[in-house]
Amino acid sequence: MKLAIKKILIVDDSRAMQTIVSRGIQAMGYSEIETRQASDGAEALSICRTWEPELVLCDWHMPGGMSGLDLLLALNREMLGIKVGFVTTEEREQMIREAMDAGAKFIVNKPFDFATLHKAVLPIIQGQDEGEEALSQHQPEEDEPDRVALPNIDVLTSVINNFTAKEVLVERLPPIQLTEKSYPCVVSLFESSQDNVVRAIAVIDVKAACLLGGAVNNIDEADVHVAIAERAISRSIMQGCERLLSVISVALHDTATSEGLLCSRVHTITEAKPVVKKLFSKPGARRIDVEVGVIGYETGRMTIIVA
C-alpha cells in the first residue's frame, strides 16, 4: 500500500524517550519509514525546514524556550504542511484543547505502551486525512443516477472465500450504523476507471478488518486476537484488507462501462467523519451490509455503499 508518511521526526529532550518512540515506530512493521531525532524545538524546526518530515512526534515541555506547542505554531506559520502529534506528560485540559485547535493530530500521554502509540499513529501513516479529502472531492453529483450494481450476498461470499486462507462466514444484515465500538474502521474508495469518480465505498469495522485481513494473509490466530483486543489495525492486517478489497472492487459493476470498479485507496479512520456519516444514511437498496465471521473469533461488520 502507498503510505502517507515516509519520514517521522521524533522530538524529545530525553534520549531514552527518543529510543522508546523510535522502537514503537519500528514495531509497526513499516521498514520504509525513516526516522530522525531532535532534542528541542529549535533543532526540530531546523530539521523540518531541510529534511521535510511528514509527521512530527513531539514532547511538550523541552529546554531552550520553545515548547512543543510553540513548535506546532511555528510550523503552522511557515506553512510546511507537516502533521504534528504529541507524546507528552501534559494533561491540562486547556493546554490540550489549545493544541488540538492548532491542528495537533493526537495526544499520547506518557507513560504509554506500544498499542496506544500505534492506535494514534497508524491511521496517520495509512492516510486517514488524504482518504477523507479524496472521498470529499471525488464523488458523483447529487442528481447523477447510480451507476453501480452491488453484488448479491452469494457473489460477495464467493469472492471473499476464493481469496482467503480461512473460511469466512458471511450473513446479510439490515442497514447498520457505525458506533464508537466500530472504530478504527478501514475505509476503501472504489472509483470508475472512466472518470476516477468515487462510485462506492466500503467501511469495515475493526473486528471485521482484523478477521478479513488475518484470513487473507493467514496471520497467526493469536496475533489476530491481540489486534482485536488492542483495536489496532497493523500493517499485515491492513495489507490483507487492501488485497481483498481490490478483489471485491471487481464485483462492483459499473453499468456505464460494463466493468468492475477500481480500489483506489484504502485507509483507516478513528472517528465519525461527516462524509461517511452522510453515506451511511442511504437506504438499503443502495448498500449491502453483512456480518463476517471466522470460526474461533468474534464477528465483525462490513458495509458497501453506492456513493
Task: Kindly describe this structure.
The chain has 307 residues and is of the alpha/beta class. 38% of the residues lie in helices and 23% in strands. The strands form three sheets. A six-stranded antiparallel β-sheet has the order 7-13-14-9-8-12, sandwiched between helices. The protein has a five-stranded parallel β-sheet with strand order 2-1-3-4-5, with helices on both faces. It has a three-stranded antiparallel β-sheet with strand order 6-10-11, with no helix packed on it. Strand 10 and strand 11 form a beta hairpin. Helix 2 runs parallel beside helix 3, helix 8 runs antiparallel to helix 9 and helix 8 packs across helix 10. The radius of gyration is 21 Å and the shape is globular.
